[in-house]
Amino acid sequence: MISENRIYQPYYTKSEPIVKYMVSLLKLSGSEKILEPCAGDGVFLDPIIKNFSNVQIDAFELNENSYSNLLVKYSDRENIKVKKTDTLTDAGLQFLCSMGGGYDAVIANPPYGAWRDHGERKKLKKSYNGFYAKESYSLFLYRCTEALNENGRLSFIIPDTYLNLHMHKHIRKYILTHTKIKEMALFPSSYFPGVNFGYANLSIIALEKCSDYKSNLENEFTIIKGFNSVEELGNNNIETLKRIKLKQKDVLQTTDYSFITNGNKSLVDCINSTQLKIGDICDCVTGFYSGNDKEYLKVKNKTIRNSKNYDLVKLDLVEFNCSSNIVNGITNDKEYVPIVKGGNRKYYKPDDWFMLWSEGKVAFYKADKKARYQNSAYYFRKGIGVPMVSSSSITAALIENRLFDQSIVGIFPKDESLLYYLLAFFNSPTANKLIRTINSSTNNSSNYIKKVPFTKPSDKLIQDINKRIEIILNEYKSTGLFSHELEEQNNKDIKKLYGF
Ligand SMILES: C[S@@+](CC[C@H](N)C(=O)[O-])C[C@H]1O[C@@H](n2cnc3c(N)ncnc32)[C@H](O)[C@@H]1O
After folding, report:
1. Cβ(22) – ligand 1 distance below 6 Å
2. For site-directed labelling of 468, which of 1, 34, 259, 379 has its Cα 20 to 30 A away?
3. Which pTM was predicted?
4. pLDDT, tens digit, for every residue of 249-293?
5. β-pairing verdict for 201-209 and 179-188
């Protein structure tokens, strides 16, 4: 049974500063026709009708209870029409959009990630031109922008993930080409009372619909961040706020039309103008999952982190001498292979974990629905593993002829002589800044890693870094420690190469 909360996502905007700021962005004069596409208990409508008692409002709401409450609440107001409907599939609204829109203003806190069954999602994806239908808020943003009249204004509070996640590429392009963005405020989701969305940040976006493509591209807008409290929203005189000015055409020129909200110019220029990317010089792939690690994954000893639920391996049954000719399983009398797992550790992860890898078992992994026997051409090869989820800084460790699991992005340089250089690079602050700018969350999927600019190092630099990495690896393998001085030298050289 799917809970009502997952279907309706009824997180109400119980914050006066947020509501006040969002309403102010509509710049209402009182003669507008307004749409509230997911009205909830009418939190945006009340301050609007307080100032403009005769303004025309359509309030849509899908939830039966909320709808009934709205009907009662606004029963004496002829200018507020409450409708029980699904905004995303409402035929009347769809028709209005096809005619070029009909509202002068839209204000909303749409549901984020509201649950829809698979069939419905498929239908939505189809009717929304292939937009990513799993995350409903972007569909609301699209439909409501369409619903605006020319020069109509929209004010939305939504997660900030539409700014640079790959899956929201289409909505970015649509906004950049069909509207003039007025401003975006970025702030922590903790400003939103009472709920933890699991999203890192929220944003309030204000935009104006405009059919003049050229003038849209020339439009400059401001991203405001660095708020110290929710009360600072809309208070544009505060000096400590960080303002980033961007032109829409510059955003449209970036890879995937990403809004780069990090102000460092040389970094942004590097991302936008790079000729070569990691994806051009390396294969970046995710690794293996057995489908039932409790059963097939073994651990070296119980002092290893998170080893509690795993059985100990018999070390004499481990094949340490692995190469790609055992991708289909071990053919001698050994049974296990070492596997590199997630976890933030630089340069080298010792052989702590082992996967059952007999021929029979591998045949089973290939056929099993839960297992992920994927990208096997890269198993037991020389590469670099970057965990999918990292702590504050990205870390990279050598895979070196071992299996790697699905919590890791395996980076396999096409030219193996770059292996140690790239190991140093992916552990450097320079790479960290680049990845965090391309995608501000701590998720490092292979898609983002592929987009990291690659600036070709000189042969001399490769040689220098190779020597230092060799020492670091030897030290680390024998003592568990490494020379931070050598690491610093690598970081300095890489910083010099990239300029940041
Ligand atoms: C996040 S709440 C926001 C409510 C209110 N606007 C506020 O900010 O307090 C989202 C509301 O949209 C309603 N809703 C969810 N999916 C909807 C849909 N597809 N069409 C219309 N309303 C929907 C929910 O029932 C809920 O009341």
Report:
1. no
2. 379
3. 0.71
4. 999 988 789 887 775 778 888 887 788 999 999 999 999 999 999
5. antiparallel
